[in-house]
Amino acid sequence: MKLYTAALLFSALLNTVWAQNPAVSVQPRTAAVKPGETVNFHCKVLSGSQPVQLEWKKTNNQPMGDNVKIDGAVLTVTNVRLKNQGSYRCVAANAQGKATVTAFLSVKQPPKVRITPSGPLMLSAGESVSLECTVSGKPRPSVSWYKQETGSEMVLVSTTTENRSVLQVTVMKAEDGGTFVCQAQNREGSAEGKVELTMVGGVSAGTLPKASVSDTDLTGVEGRTVTMHCHATGSPTPVVSWSKLRAPLPWQHTVTGGSLTLNNLGRQDSGQYICNATNAAGYSEAYVQLEVDSPPYATILRDDVVARAGDAIRLQCIAHGSHPIRFRWTRVGGSAMSPGAETTKEGSLKIGQLKVSDSGTYKCIASNHVGSSEALTKVTVKA
Predict the structure, then answer these.
(1) Pairing of strands 142-148, 372-382
(2) ∠ CA 253-259-260 to the nearest 5 degrees?
């Protein structure tokens, strides 16, 4: 009987030891390859009760793709394409449960470049064109323009956003034409596109525009109005337009002649504004830096304070607005402050050894060079 019992215990122990959920690993966990290459992911069973079944799945049960092959524990992606990028799960299952491990495939993308208009382009004297270079790649490529000349490749000034760069070219003489190159680079490689510009016709009779502003630095006040004045010379008479650096013009704006007016100013309207004067001979820019100041808005952290005689209190006043902000504390009704009251430049009022006579309404006044604001709090001192 004892031998039979011992056999049962030994059998239960074996079941406890061997009846395990599966555990798996995958190598490599991440892989970054170029398009056209091949990559293998190996799924390995580390432990678990046999038999263990292995299955590969793509995240969200998306289709694998016709270039993905599975041979038991090995998943192979041949001739990798961009759509193969993503997570792949190896799922191991036995009678006790399941285990999952995930591998991630990242597809490297060397830069690609496309220029519009593609050219070759024929421009009359004084005519301008915007060359737009659209780039793609991973990581995001850096992009620059230069003019291809013998012994010189000087980088040209362009307007660049996330995936495109725009180069403005004005042809005044034959030497202004040539081959313009857009170059994109990331750590996976580089690419470039070229466009040919040629001037046709005679010399332009026009003169380049010249833009100038009345004030290069302006300060406005929140809620009020400010006007920027721009004057332009040139032949033909230039067309004047306004823009804001890295942002659209504020919604409440008007343009009359060469003047830009902003109404109901907000702090977000601060920034650099650009007056652009354009005619057939070219263009010119002038800049205005606007700073919008705001009066303070004062609040007190506690609207109602109850304390006992002999206690100490600290009232904190805070204010939002243009700095520097100054704070001043008074008592409403003309009562004098407690002899032990202390104020700080950070806006706090401290009163030690409170007396019943210290009860009342206290006022914080916050002020700056634009205006002032008040906030009240009630103090009750019980005997």
Answers:
(1) unpaired
(2) 20
- φ/ψ of 244, rounded to 5, equals -120, 140
Mean pLDDT, each 10-residue run in order, the chain (383 residues):
49 53 92 89 91 88 88 92 89 90 89 89 86 90 84 75 87 84 89 89 68 94 94 89 92 91 94 93 92 94 92 94 94 89 94 92 95 95 89
Q: Which of 122, 299, 280 is nearest to 204 (CA)?
A: 280
Report which secondary-structure segment, H or E, holds 373.
strand 372-382
Q: Which residue, chain included where needed, has tokens 């510009």?
A: 197
Angstrom distance (rounded) from CA 366 to CA 373 = 5
Rounded to whole angstroms, the Cα distance separating 187 from 182 reads 17
Task: Give DSSP secondary structure letters for 178-190.
Answer: EEEEEEEEETTEE
3-state secondary structure of 288: strand
3-state secondary structure (DSSP) of residue 359: coil
